[in-house]
Amino acid sequence: MRHGLLPLLLTAPLGACATSSEFSAIDSCLETGQAWNYGSSRCEAPDPGPVDLIRVDKSAHRMAVYRQGRIVREFRVALGRGDPGPKQRQGDGRVPEGAYRITAHNPASAYHLSLRIGYPTPEQVAAAAKRGVSPGGDIMIHGLPNGRGSIGSRHTMIDWTEGCVAVTNREMDWLYKAVADGTPVEIKA
Description:
The protein is an alpha+beta fold. It folds into two domains: 5-37, no CATH class; 53-188, L,D-transpeptidase catalytic domain-like, CATH 2.40.440.10. Helices cover 23% and strands 22% of the residues. The chain has helices at 5-10, 20-32, 34-37, 122-131, 169-178; strands spanning 53-57, 62-67, 70-76, 98-106, 114-117, 140-142, 165-166, 184-188.
């Protein structure tokens, strides 16, 4: 048994039974590692207040969200199925690198919910034009394919997106509430 799980077990009063939704919430929290990040005896993610920066570290397969310079939450992510370099053209399966902003929330996504990243920049459009290719677009932070949410965090075992950043549906629910349009996004190798 992990040492951090003991406080969770000891906080329930004798004879108390958790509902299935409470077990699901605890399960989700343990699955994402949040219980260990916050040093709390309760397993709950922080309030989804306003996030003012998102950083994606492609080599670490991690995404961190910040509020006032402090990490609020971190996520393990799946990335594009292409080579690890920066996105060069439509269909290469790579995740772009650079500084962007969230430009839209999509509640009707084919991937649970999604946040559109403002790729390509005018410079990336010009660079692709010089190479005679389309830079692509529709780069998102999104959940799992609709109807496949039960995959949960196992989706991070392989890179499977077309160039997007993927999290679990529960994580996407949190992000969708916490991230406003216009929030800066930094993606680095």
